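Hi R.,

Here are the chain sequences for the assembly we discussed:
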Amino acid sequence: MAVYKRRYNSYTGSLTPQWSRFFVLTRFAFADLFKSRFFVLLLIFCIIPCLFFAGFIFVANNKTMQLLLQLREMNFFTVENQYFINVVIAQAQAAFLLNCWVGPILISGDLTNGALPLFLSRPFSRADYVLGKLSVLGILLSAITWIPCLLLFSLQAGLARDGWIWSHLWMVVPIIFCSAIWILMLSLISLAVSAWIKLRIVATGIIFVTFFIPAGLGEMFNAIMGTIWGRLLNFTYVFRLIVGHAFREGAVRLSRRGWEEIPIPAAWGALIFVCLLSLVILNARLRARETVRG
Amino acid sequence: MTPTIELNGLEVQLGGRTILHGLTGVLNSRAIGLLGPNGAGKSTLINTLLGFHTPSKGSARVLGIDSHTSGKALRSLVGYMPENDAFISKMSGVRFVRYMAEISGLPSEQAMERAHEAFVYVGLGEARYRPVGTYSLGMKQLAKLAQAIAHGPKVLILDEPTNGMDPPARKRLIELIREIREASDICLLLSSHLLRDVEETCDEVLILRNGQIASICNLVEERRANRKFLELETIGAETTFTSALESLGCECAVFSSGRIKVVMPDSVEIREVFKVAADRGVQIRRMNHRRDSLEDIFLNAMEQTGAADGRL
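And here is the predicted structure of the full complex:
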């Protein structure tokens, strides 16, 4: 089928391994994303807090700098559990913003003009498709959550010396684990929304609504019923609870705010339920052919 | 030899309704046409062959591979051109085809090369850098064909490929399909409402009606049989006329309003028909000398209900 011959020839060359093909979706999605200047600016904006956190570590480990700043409370600059909780939560919020911009276009573009049958008529399953799209958000959100967190951890370990790294090494697990949970939940929600809503602006709005309206409804439920279980609808609170617990700081921090805590298993249950619900929605929408009932 | 398509009591239910009712048949030709009126189950059959629908009973095999149990293996051999719009509107044509080729397993460089070649081959070379969303309907059809052939499939499934195309574009597309069929060992399954499309490109036809096989007809054999016949419109023809023709070795079929179809052996000439008519005072008002077209086969299949094995 050479261009100059204009003749059809079948392909006899090598093929890529089947397991790696989901990454084609990821690669093409990244190529499209980086064409947008707004996306690049947003990505930079999401990484900026890490620079401040890095500055904080630098000051915390530099007595001269602390003297120059003439700080009265010298304990202000300590890099312990609470510091990493703040980093993880701040970057989780940045991830939410980035997800609101990137997530809604990932699937809707394929569904708008019926391209899904083209993907699924190849040796490519729906799971591969979802994995390819999830990888886009997974890689992107990782780049602004646990990867910079680990870099900050390494920076602190390098500057603190005196065996700091060994006494704090356990924090690597909650840094990665909590970020991964947040990334997974955000990604699945935005993919589910993207599979339903074709317009980006509406889809972004729906993602915001998913996070803020249930939280408000939950608080209303709490006020009316005199209970705390409505907080399960506040995903940000649920995430904070899990982060605090994972960093062994949860009870202290939240009790200061005068909140009675919901049990950690219930918090986990809420996040798992949201993830499963998103998967059910994706399963219903991502079909090569729709079946009309009746 | 492995049959191209093998259906064993294939039944498919969608939304609680049975769409395909126990289809059984073997199609051996390299180019198979799928015919039937709207709602006959053509697209459902194609979707089942692609593994999009799960059979509730029976099975379907393409080149010996079960569409349900070995769906991925089967789809690795297939190039599919869907009936409806199927594209990514913001992507340039060549990038869209490259994307699809890479998903089929072609390495990036080869996918790019094949995408350019496929685009030039289908005649969209000049438009390959334009977003697919800006293409006309006919161009979109060609882009769909390009993505279906770019990865060099062994089976090409085309669902209503000439939909929305003007006559020259349709002619060009049919030529392309024929070229593809001739130039390689590719198997072709073409679903169309247009009998002419199927007649021009296919060797065997599967006619569906109400989710059942109305007929399986080997066009090559039909053409080889060269069943030329006369179509007569007569006045005054009675059974004696047809009996006299039959005594000459002809086969006759009498229809209403004096219409008679006469299949003649090579030894009988037309003037003998005139002689028999003159002897019996039968007026021949019109005479067409023609052969069975796919239209006749299709119409016959539509008239027949519950044919035993569907063969004409």
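The first strand of chain B starts at residue 5 and ends at 14. Residues 57 and 153 of chain B are 28 Å apart (CA to CA).

Let me know if anything looks off.

Best,
T.
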